[in-house]
């Protein structure tokens, strides 16, 4: 670990954050970068009509408004607009604005009680409070927004399907995003056929809305993740620390530390940090390490932390074998976010 006397340079590996269930519940709001996310600020790509179509459907879902009536012929009735299900499920690749639209739903829906969190935050809440207490806390909520819905293991499958089923039956509306259609969750990751009944029961609560398009982050970038040499890194960390708080850690030490901290607490690891520094990045070949790093990257991206890094390029941090496996979309999303963060202004 580098010894630094500057109080504005911190080390993530020295932090051991704790989060109570009450704090988790209070934190179920959109990330700061989506504080101003509305349907009006969503920029649909005209090359992909499904984006504008999705926006129109979600506006109707959020406001409860009916679509404009369609005109029929002289003796024909206009086709009846299908009734929306209690949940909407935004399916599409990374970087097409799904989280923006999810936050727009949250902001547009006039509700007394509404929550917004990542899939891992909800499962962590259950882990902290217990299933029964979580149901009681969330029961009666008007809206539950779930970002990056993933079913990576059988336990999460059972917990989330039961939880959502109980909430829907009590009147809660659901909005979720994922890179995988709800009837395909779990494919290639565990014996999905053993949980087919639960998966399909959950998907029946959602109207799936497909959003096509290309990654907006890559449209705005050229090349690959930015890599600094040791001198550039030291100078950049010092410059960042002269104006804000920068973290400075060896990549391997961060990866090891993530194994000792529950993913629900990763956001607290980054609390108060303005610039994230990672020295001597290497390519990850262990699946558990890689998945923890993905969850960490998601929290860094939510906080919009510029990343300074040396060593292996962060857009090549996941091995080819991993990119060809069942978590391919997760890894590609993380790569997209890492690329953007290394090009963010750290000054």
From TrEMBL:
Cellular compartments per GO CC: cytoplasm
A Pfam family annotated for this UniProt entry: AFG1_ATPase
GO molecular function: ATP binding; ATP hydrolysis activity
InterPro entries: ATPase_AFG1-like, P-loop_NTPase
Record's keyword terms, sorted: ATP-binding, Cell cycle, Cell division, Nucleotide-binding
PANTHER family: AFG1-LIKE ATPASE, ATPASE N2B
Protein name per the record: Cell division protein ZapE
Organism of origin: Microbacterium pseudoresistens
């Amino acid at each position: 670990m580098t010894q630094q006397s500057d109080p504005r340079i911190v080390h993530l590996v020295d932090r051991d954050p704790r989060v109570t269930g009450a704090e988790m519940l209070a934190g179920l709001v959109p990330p700061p970068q989506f504080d101003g996310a509305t349907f009006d600020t969503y920029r649909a790509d005209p090359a992909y009509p499904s984006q504008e179509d999705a926006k129109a459907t979600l506006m109707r879902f959020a406001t409860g408004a009916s679509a404009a009536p369609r005109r029929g012929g002289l003796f024909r009735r206009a086709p009846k607009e299908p009734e929306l299900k209690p949940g909407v499920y935004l399916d599409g690749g990374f970087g097409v604005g799904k989280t923006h639209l999810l936050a727009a739903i949250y902001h547009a829906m006039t509700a007394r009680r509404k929550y917004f969190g990542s899939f891992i935050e909800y499962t962590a809440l259950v882990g902290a409070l217990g299933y029964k207490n979580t149901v009681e806390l969330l029961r009666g909520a008007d809206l539950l927004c779930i970002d990056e819905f993933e079913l990576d293991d059988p336990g999460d499958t059972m917990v989330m399907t039961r939880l959502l089923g109980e909430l829907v039956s009590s009147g809660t509306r659901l909005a979720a995003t994922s890179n995988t259609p709800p009837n395909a969750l779990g494919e290639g990751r565990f014996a999905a056929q053993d949980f087919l009944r639960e998966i399909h029961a959950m998907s029946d609560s959602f109207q799936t809305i497909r959003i096509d398009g290309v990654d907006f982050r890559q449209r705005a970038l050229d090349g690959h993740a930015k890599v600094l040499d040791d001198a550039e890194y030291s100078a950049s960390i010092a410059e960042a620390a002269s104006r804000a708080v920068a973290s400075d850690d060896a990549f391997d030490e961060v990866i090891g530390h993530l194994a000792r901290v529950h993913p629900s607490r990763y956001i607290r690891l980054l609390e108060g940090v303005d610039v994230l520094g990672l020295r001597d990045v290497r390519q990850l070949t262990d699946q558990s390490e890689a998945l923890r790093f993905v969850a960490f990257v998601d929290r860094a991206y939510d906080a919009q932390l510029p990343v300074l890094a040396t060593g292996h390029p962060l857009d090549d941090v996941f091995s080819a074998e991993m990119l060809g496996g069942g978590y391919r979309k997760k890894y590609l999303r993380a790569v997209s976010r890492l690329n953007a963060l290394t090009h963010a202004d750290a000054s």
